[in-house]
Amino acid sequence: MLPQVVPLDWWPLTRDCLAYGVTVAFLICIIHDERVEWYEALTLVLLYIVYIAVMYWDKSIQSCARGGVGSTASRRQSESSPTEAGEVLLSVSSPPPPSDVAEEEKQALNPAAALQTTVAVAGAPGSTGPAAMGVSEQINGSIKASEEARPAPEEGECIQLFSCPDGGWWRRVVWVVTWPIHLVFLFTIPDCEKPKFKRLFPLTFFMCIVWIGSLSYVVAWLITIIGDTLKIPDSVMGITFLAAGTSVPEAVSSVIVAKQGHGSMGISNSIGSNTFDILLCLGLPWFIKASFLPTAKGHHYVNINSRGLEYSAISLLSTLLLLYVTFYANKFKLDRKMGQACLAMYVVFLILATLIELNVFFVVNLPTCGR
């Protein structure tokens, strides 16, 4: 789906994978005894505050991390032979040979240094060729193309509420089905892109949150009813249909920013949202339920009904490690091969987690009670 290979910066990916890995590991420790105590839920919330603090001081931490990696790369380059060093200097005016592994590793580990070299060569006196005019800035794994290169939005992309679109019967069916939804959104969510609604962006944000929360509740309720009717465990419905449905907005936003060249932003959105889901979206409700709404007096904990969630969390942690190793082997590039690898890992995780929840390997869920 991407029109080009998008380079990724190693720091945001490493930071988010490390934070998510610590979060999943702590979740495994919490649900091991099939109950969540109030202080364990509070710890999840406090960890999210720590995560926000790390994001706030990200620039300082990033400079220290890049300095350590840069010194390692410098030592590795200094150990190379003088001939290789001469080839690196000559690569300013000619493409580097395929055998120059040290320079490629340095640019992969420190894209900022590669950016400075590229800009310096393009901005040198007398450089008026296409390379000097078409330099694209690569900052934090994103490609900032020129404004002229970006295609203007087509008028047909706008949703026409009061005129049936052309283009085939399928497009008309989709328009009819989604027409009530767009109509309700039109009257409840101000379009702050229009000049007259520009100052109403806080109301737009608030109404989006309200609609997302309301629709998420309805979807979770429907999934629970369908699973109970078909005698499918709630955990299976959660890791399949519910997870896919609630992740559609994240997937769409990640695809949009990745097509614009901001690959690191898309990856951070996908991984960081899961960290938010575990630490705050699970920790805060668990803390409120265990502290203020206990099932019995003095029982300040929340019961977890599935023993298979622990194995699913372990599988998720293994998948995360495999994902980072795959990105590292692909030199932190987002391309078709990386997409195929991610899809394969997701299918394997989904099959494994579903089989565990369905008691295929061992019993983790009690049979559904008869009516």
Q: Can you count the helices?
A: 14
Largest sheet: 2 strands, antiparallel
What structural class results from the helix and strand content?
mainly alpha
Strand order of the largest sheet: 1-6
**Average pLDDT number:** 75
Radius of gyration: 25 Å
Instruction: Categorize the overall geometry.
Output: globular
Which strand-content bin applies to the residues? under 5%
Q: Which runs of at least 5 residues are low in confidence (pLDDT < 50)?
A: 81-158
Percent helix, as a range, is: 55-70%
- For the termini, the CA-CA separation is 47 Å
Count the beta strands: 6
Series of H and E elements: EHEHHHHHHEEHHHHHEHEH
Please explain how this structure is put together:
This protein has 371 residues and is mainly alpha-helical. The protein is 65% helix and 4% strand. It is built from 14 helices and six strands. It has a two-stranded antiparallel ribbon. Strand 3 (137-139) and strand 4 form a beta hairpin.
Brief description of this entry?
The chain has 371 residues and is mostly helical.
